[in-house]
Amino acid sequence: MLNSRIVFRADGNSNIGLGHVSRCLALYDILKDSYKEVIFAIRNSDLKITQTVNSQCAVYLIPDSLSQEEELDILCKKLLREDDHLILDGYHFKTEYQKVLKENVSKLIVVDDEANWHIVGDLVINHGGSTLKKKYSIEPYTKLLLGLSFCLIRKEFLEAACDKQIQKNKSSLLICMGGSDTPNNSLKLLKAVAKLNIFNNITIITGSAYLHSLSLNHFIEQNTENDISHLRNLNPEQLVSIIKNTEVCIASASTISLEIASVHASLIIGITASNQIALHDTLIESGCAVSLNNINNLSEDQIAILIRKFISQDTFVEILKNQRVHFDGKSAERIIHAINSL
To answer: Which pTM value belongs to this model?
Structure first.
């Protein structure tokens, strides 16, 4: 029997990044066939992001001018129903906000990163949270889904996790620092690897919220010694195809690193924001990646030295084995079972 309705509440733009929206869209992909209706409530989000969401499900636009108190009032009075399942993903959805909404829905599910406040939801999903279990403050009834077994990635990547035959192009490199990359680490990393002259081709992938294309493309045009491609706004199928054919990938410790690991590639990750620390630590402790640590604090030369060391030490054989253990393509089944058991 289908559940009545599920409502997502998340925002995304070039300032806060696309992580919250991306995770919710992955969760939407997992859950959409279990509900009669899906609605995505969003505010303070870039037009392209809102359009991306609207291409997949109904969008409820919350006026940007509202205070959080006013937002709660409009959600409770005009949108939410008592039999709804509500999913929250955002750092401004703290305890008091959750309490108000929980009184107006059947089940509350919280997607979280950092365990920074008390959670009153029925379920918490944190795919990078295996190191945070003791930190969580929750209600007695709250269930925790922590770690890579519950990774929120799109169905194309879940399917790719089961593919045993992957053919890599030798000496190929992919750089993907997420959808916004506000500090422009894409350019810093590109300059670092260009100095090494060890990759036959380099691909940079950026998202719709990336604002530094001019400087990135200028460097690519000036650098004639390397075969460099800059691709934007790829769909999941295109991204899976590129990862499958790439030997080494460098990514931020965000959802993109989970998607790369699910396709099974030699993965180098780095921290670009504090909310990535738990996922970074989970990937490193599981042996699914090696780390540049905080990319924001590294110079181009320091990055180049670390990458050369990873390549020369042949550290990636065990990483690929560990990825096959931790990314089995079954996280969606586990999440569906947990929600249906509430």
So the answer is: 0.91
